Every structure is written in structure tokens, then in C-alpha cells.
Here is the input.
Amino acid sequence: NAGVTQTPKFQVLKTGQSMTLQCAQDMNHEYMSWYRQDPGMGLRLIHYSVGAGITDQGEVPNGYNVSRSTTEDFPLRLLSAAPSQTSVYFCASSRFQGGNQPQHFGDGTRLSIL
Amino acid sequence: AQKVTQAQTEISVVEKEDVTLDCVYETRDTTYYLFWYKQPPSGELVFLIRRNSFDEQNEISGRYSWNFQKSTSSFNFTITASQVVDSAVYFCALSEGQKGGASGSRLTFGEGTQLTVNP
Here is the structure.
């Protein structure tokens, strides 16, 4: 049982490049989300989804796109990377039951934009 | 809007000391859920506990205990007889309850408290 799998674990990009961070879960969870973690700011929600075909914006969505074509996968796209997007990115999933379910996190992707 | 504040940025203790991590939250909802997560130096996020807004009973799990007080909007976490393996960043988080739509599952995190336990 893999849980939540994120790839890659590390990535270095140049400003203006595009990239997709992959996230997959094998727990049949309805709810999936992406967070970014920056020093001194905790984790902030970027985008989330409550099921295939349904996505919505979180607290810091600018510069990121998401789609949810299957229950298992929830990729995060950076269309034109900027240095401000240097961060650690976490994908999470949970059963969707109105906020009372603990979220299961992947191991994170450490992204550096030069 | 909901908010979580962890005023202690860093705490350093000596092994076997007790330590309390503070968490204060703000929400307008009457139904909400509070969580604590641990992030060890390896970087993953580990779920520790969930508490709903209707249950103010304190909880103890081994050396860990949690004190939830709605009157002061606090959900503090105490580690008794701390150990070096407790060294980590600890996050308090809040999600609001059942709503029309998905927003109830959105987690708002505090800034985190870096706990260092020295031998």
C-alpha cells in the first residue's frame, strides 16, 4: 500500500520553464490537494479537488494549474516557473467527509527555480 | 476566514523535560476540526491527532497529551519526558465543518513550531 506518491522528489528549473508535479494515491480517496511549504509560513493550500473533474482554488493558486481526470491522480502544473515558486510542495488526500478526516501527505517535492 | 497561530517559532529543551506547544485558532464556524501534524527532519508529515469542536475532552496517548479549550480557542500539545526523537516541526491545523461544497476539507495550518530536544 503506497499511500500518496509524489514525483519527482527534487527538481531544479530555470525561470520560465514549465513543469508538472505528479501526485497519485491508491486509497480511493475523493479529496486531494496541493500545498506549498515555505519557511515560517506553514503550509498553504494551492488547489484542491473533491473528485474527478472537480477542482477549486485554495489560498495561493496563482501560477499553478491542476486537473483531476481520475480519482487516483492530481497533477500540479507550473506553466512558467518563477523564483517565487521555489518551495517544497506536498500533495495530500483524504476521504471527503466534511473536513473531519485527517489528510495523508506525500513525501514532498523540493523545487528550486533559478 | 479561519486562522491558526503558533506563537512559538522555536523551542529548545533538554531530554526528559516536559514541553507544551501552543496553538490558538480563529473560526466563525460552530463545527470545526483541529489537527496536529509532526514533520521530522526527514520531511514527511505525520498525522498525530484530530479533535472536533464538540469534544472538549483532553486526550492522552503515551507521552503525548492534548488540551482543547473552546473558551480560549486553544488546542495545546504537551510532550511529557521529551526524547531526542521528538525533535521535529509540529503543525497545528484547522478545517471547518460540513458545508455545501468542498471547502470544509480545506486545512489551514499554523506557522509551525520547531522543537529541538537536546541529549
